[in-house]
Amino acid sequence: MSDDDTGVRAMMLRGGTSKGLYVEARDLPADPDARDDLLLRLLGTPDPRQIDGLGGATSLTSKVAVVGPSEHPDADVDYLFLQLGVDEATVSEAQNCGNILAGVGPFSLERGLVAADRPTTSVRIRMVNSDSVAVATVPTPDGRVEYRGDVAIAGVPGTAAPITLAFSDTEGSATGALLPTGNVRDTVDGVEVTCVDNGMPVVLARAEAFGLTGHESHEDLAADPGLGERVDAFRTKAGALMGLGDVSRASVPKTVLLAPPADGGQVATRSFIPVRPHTAIGVLAAVSVVTGMLLPGAVGHELTADWPAATTRVDVEHPTGHFLVDVAVDATTTPPRVVRSGVVRTARKLFDGTAFPRA
Predict the structure, then answer these.
(1) Which of 54, 100, 113, 238 is least buried, going by the fewest C-beta atoms within 10 A?
(2) Residue 310 pLDDT more than 90?
(3) Domain span at residue 143?
(4) Is residue 311 very low, low, confident or very high in pLDDT (cuts 50, 70, 90)?
């Protein structure tokens, strides 16, 4: 019998400010084309409403995590992130997703891929997209995943238990280098930029270079008819400069515009995924942003002048709140070296069962 008849064992979790379908690798076809076809039909793509599938009609809710045992000596599980289009039948593995990553630890424990400890369990996760490792520390006070807690993250109602994500070897995740162009500062379309890749290829620019304050609401940015086109043209040229080739149909690099803080944080950001304005900011995008800003001479470094000396924890403002990032960089080496990076996220199990694809 086919998956159309039997369905696919799957779990849906909210991870950070995203939501996705989590599936064990063994429950999907081994052939990538057959796998992608099945996932598109499960999520209901292509359709702007994804009405006949499990997708949520936005890029933040059209995501899949494929998880299985890892043969990597430093990892317990492998995690392949797949970004599915909404109104276009696309499946991309060009990037990681740090929000969906927040659910990989709980999913691995729920599926018995990793044995639980008490009071917390550390799950070593190889992010297949970048061949780098993250460690998720998950609350397991009774030997089971505890989703309830008192940690709030911007963009998610209520509170949940904290899941700490610590990253290693994320430099050059998609480009092969922390500074993919070899420079701390470049010029794209007459705009000074810093191209940085510490888990997510990102192009940093000052918001004022786009005629913005950097404090606009998500709705105001989305209503600007010419902004998306300009961002698309800008990031396409930046992608080529970063060695990513033709990115016109790719989800990376991300564009992040920087401005002085306006709500008690340390920097205001407005990001695009890849052309539409983000309601918040991605986990690894925020990590890459702070990494870039800590480099002398980089775009946005001037905004760090008032930060506490030797600071590593940075409060990043975005359209719907704040995001706390912990990054330490050794800028005295050539090229600069990331010492550590990490964030705190939350996750919640939404359902566990059988998902059926459309015909």
Answers:
(1) 113
(2) no
(3) 3-170+346-355
(4) confident
